[in-house]
Amino acid sequence: MRLIRINLQYFAADEKTEKATPKKRDDTRKKGQVAKSQDVNTGFLLLLVFGGLFLLGDYMKNTMTGMYEQTFQEYMNWELTIDTAATVFREITVEMAKVIAPIMGIAILAGITSNLIQVGILFTAEPLKFDLKKVDPIKGAKRIFSARALVELVKSLLKISLIGVITFMIIWLNKDQMMLMSQKSVEDALLFFGEITIIMGLASGLALLLLSILDYTYQRYDHEKNIRMSKKDVKDEHKNIEGDPLIKSKIKEKQRQMSAARMMSEVPEADVIITNPTHYAIAIKYDEEMSDAPIVVAKGVDFVAQKIKEIAKAHDVVMVENRPLARAMYQEAEIDQPIDEQFFKAVAEILAYVYRLEKKV
């Protein structure tokens, strides 16, 4: 029973039930794993491109007809040489660029805008890296028959059906006029069919954009599901960020040891040791070049205090007993820092006593 309970606890801890932490979200974003619907891109592209065709249709028609007129009225009369062929090619290329460039610019703008709306600014090369897992046939088969693949299939069928219905309805509503185009001029026929095409494109783009709202909602849900974390993952991440408590405690212990060793090395240079006498020891040094006030170079209680006094005794550093001062300075004073103003008078008297004792004054 105990073994079963342990296994159940293990599986519960490994189950991905927790929402992704900010760090997890940031890491997955850097890898290019974001919630994104391709239908948003397609819908924006169709709307803006066909909108551009609607606005720029006359300009494009005039440019194209002007190019044809110049070709048959002027270029046809030129003598065929390398120079004239190069001139014709260059001028036709420029005219074609005038027609294509605005639509290409609109398409690029649509792609950039749709991606910015969904994922913001993101530059990463992670998706381009070669990964053997992507060509694993077993995992590939699992992806083909997964729930996500089924959703994509249903979505594709829905898009095809929706666009098919829209285009059929537009054609059906305009069938009578289409039949009459045989009696119209070529220019009128081209104008009519161009308008119908733009209407179908705009309607399809709008329908895809509306459908993309559902798709984007699903993509966000699926993305959130894929980046969920187990309780163990959250704990491990917290440890990585904050540091393993055991390692941190060892580092702190090592830092304390290094600090204590450095502190003890300063005791022989002290001018006086103020003691409790048994529990506290404060080592004071006064150097006018270093500071205007005396500096605490070492302090300790109990074992450390005894060690300070042993080193002081071995190096003939004067020890002065002052219980209230030793206790107060241990609580208030910081190592390698000047003493507080409240201790100036008491410490000055002790230093004066030490200097007299050593015949320094």
UniProtKB/TrEMBL annotation:
<keyword id="KW-1003">Cell membrane</keyword>
<comment type="similarity">
    <text>Belongs to the type III secretion exporter family.</text>
</comment>
<keyword id="KW-1005">Bacterial flagellum biogenesis</keyword>
<dbReference type="Pfam" id="PF01312">
    <property type="entry name" value="Bac_export_2"/>
</dbReference>
<keyword id="KW-0812">Transmembrane</keyword>
<keyword id="KW-0282">Flagellum</keyword>
<feature type="transmembrane region" description="Helical">
    <location>
        <begin position="192"/>
        <end position="218"/>
    </location>
</feature>
<keyword id="KW-0653">Protein transport</keyword>
<keyword id="KW-1006">Bacterial flagellum protein export</keyword>
<comment type="function">
    <text>Required for formation of the rod structure in the basal body of the flagellar apparatus. Together with FliI and FliH, may constitute the export apparatus of flagellin.</text>
</comment>
<dbReference type="GO" id="GO:0044780">
    <property type="term" value="P:bacterial-type flagellum assembly"/>
</dbReference>
<feature type="transmembrane region" description="Helical">
    <location>
        <begin position="145"/>
        <end position="172"/>
    </location>
</feature>
<keyword id="KW-0969">Cilium</keyword>
<protein>
    <recommendedName>
        <fullName>Flagellar biosynthetic protein FlhB</fullName>
    </recommendedName>
</protein>
<feature type="transmembrane region" description="Helical">
    <location>
        <begin position="40"/>
        <end position="57"/>
    </location>
</feature>
<dbReference type="InterPro" id="IPR006136">
    <property type="entry name" value="FlhB"/>
</dbReference>
<dbReference type="GO" id="GO:0005886">
    <property type="term" value="C:plasma membrane"/>
</dbReference>
<keyword id="KW-0966">Cell projection</keyword>
<feature type="transmembrane region" description="Helical">
    <location>
        <begin position="99"/>
        <end position="124"/>
    </location>
</feature>
<keyword id="KW-0813">Transport</keyword>
<keyword id="KW-1133">Transmembrane helix</keyword>
<keyword id="KW-0472">Membrane</keyword>
<dbReference type="InterPro" id="IPR029025">
    <property type="entry name" value="T3SS_substrate_exporter_C"/>
</dbReference>
<dbReference type="InterPro" id="IPR006135">
    <property type="entry name" value="T3SS_substrate_exporter"/>
</dbReference>
<dbReference type="GO" id="GO:0009306">
    <property type="term" value="P:protein secretion"/>
</dbReference>
